[in-house]
Specification:
Strand content: under 5%
Structural class: mainly alpha
Largest sheet: 3 strands, mixed
Helix content: over 70%
Number of strands: 3
Radius of gyration: 22 Å
Shape: globular
Order of helices and strands: EHHHEHHHEHHHHH
């Protein structure tokens, strides 16, 4: 039997966002501005929650973790993207590619579960307000956060280990600006049926479990709000979960646009734009949404700013 000679891949080449110099400069300025706002905005939310006594509640405890995940999720891709924008050869090592894949999957999956946890938190706060602090005890909060991070780590390990066991012996160009499982499977010269099955099962389980939790929580919330006779009270009650609802719509909306439609050669550029929005823009929007629509956060910021000014006078 004739043996076939293969050259094993030791590094990958990313196609990046664009090769047009003018667009590269514009994208660099835009992305670095968005990334800076993401870091400052989310770090500010975390610091404000830690420093302000009036924000020491379960809702803001989860919000601080959401801000942390937004920083981590964006940072797993954006710095490498910014460096590669002006490089002719956008290379990433085999180990570097799978490291990026792992951490991005950890933070994205954890955020998915955390949003479900936050929906449950809003359900308890609105449907059982007198028992809210009893049900959402410190122990319960830590447990829910631990479950979210564990789900993220397990999901990332499954896909990263399965993908790293594949053989890559042909073209090494990933048609994307970061390492992701589907583009890697296209390059593999091994049987990828197990990887495709794992994607179907794991992603399906993660989406169904989190979406069911969110839908059930908001169904109960809506039923409780509709029972309130006063329109002003209904509006006030709904406002406590409106920010979270907007974040959920943006997060899962971007996710379904990315993965819920068939990809083709003609839509690769669109896939990259949607991915960029999901990775860079969404983490920037979350602290803005919670700051603009949340009275408690705005008041806490004003008080903190007032204290800081008076101490330096």
């Amino acid at each position: 039997m004739q043996r076939r000679n293969y050259t094993l891949v030791t590094e990958f080449k990313l196609t990046g966002l664009t090769d047009i110099p003018e667009l590269q400069i514009l994208l660099f300025v835009m992305i670095i501005a968005v990334y800076a706002i993401t870091l400052v905005g989310n770090s500010g939310v975390i610091a404000l929650i830690r420093l302000c006594p009036q924000l020491q509640t379960p809702m803001y405890f989860f919000l601080s973790h959401l801000s942390f995940l937004d920083i981590c999720c964006s940072s797993s891709v954006t710095p490498k993207l910014l460096i590669d924008l002006f490089k002719e050869k956008k290379l990433i090592s085999f180990a570097g590619c799978f490291t990026q894949l792992y951490f991005y999957a950890v933070f994205a999956t954890t955020e998915c579960y955390l949003l479900a946890v936050m929906a449950y938190d809003r359900y308890v706060a609105i449907c059982s307000p007198l028992l809210y602090l009893v049900i959402m005890s410190v122990r319960k909060r830590v447990y829910l956060i631990a479950v979210s991070y564990t789900a993220g780590i397990i999901n990332a390990l499954i896909h990263t280990v399965a993908a790293s066991r594949l053989s890559f012996c042909g073209p090494n160009t990933i048609n994307h600006f970061y390492c992701e499982v589907p583009p890697l499977l296209v390059l593999s010269c091994s049987d990828v049926s197990l990887n495709e099955l794992l994607i179907f099962v794991c992603v399906g389980f993660n989406l169904i479990s989190t979406m069911v939790t969110i839908l059930l929580s908001y169904t109960c919330i809506l039923a409780t709000i509709l029972k309130i006779s006063s329109s002003k009270s209904r509006q006030k009650t709904f406002s406590t979960c409106s920010s979270h609802l907007i974040v959920i719509i943006i997060f899962f909306g971007s996710f379904f646009i990315m993965y819920g439609r068939p990809s083709s050669r003609e839509t690769h550029n669109l896939d990259k734009v949607v991915s960029l929005v999901y990775i860079a823009v969404t983490p920037m929007l979350n602290p803005i949404i919670y700051s603009l629509r949340n009275t408690e956060v705005r008041n806490a910021f004003r008080k903190f700013l007032g204290r800081s000014v008076s101490q330096h006078m």
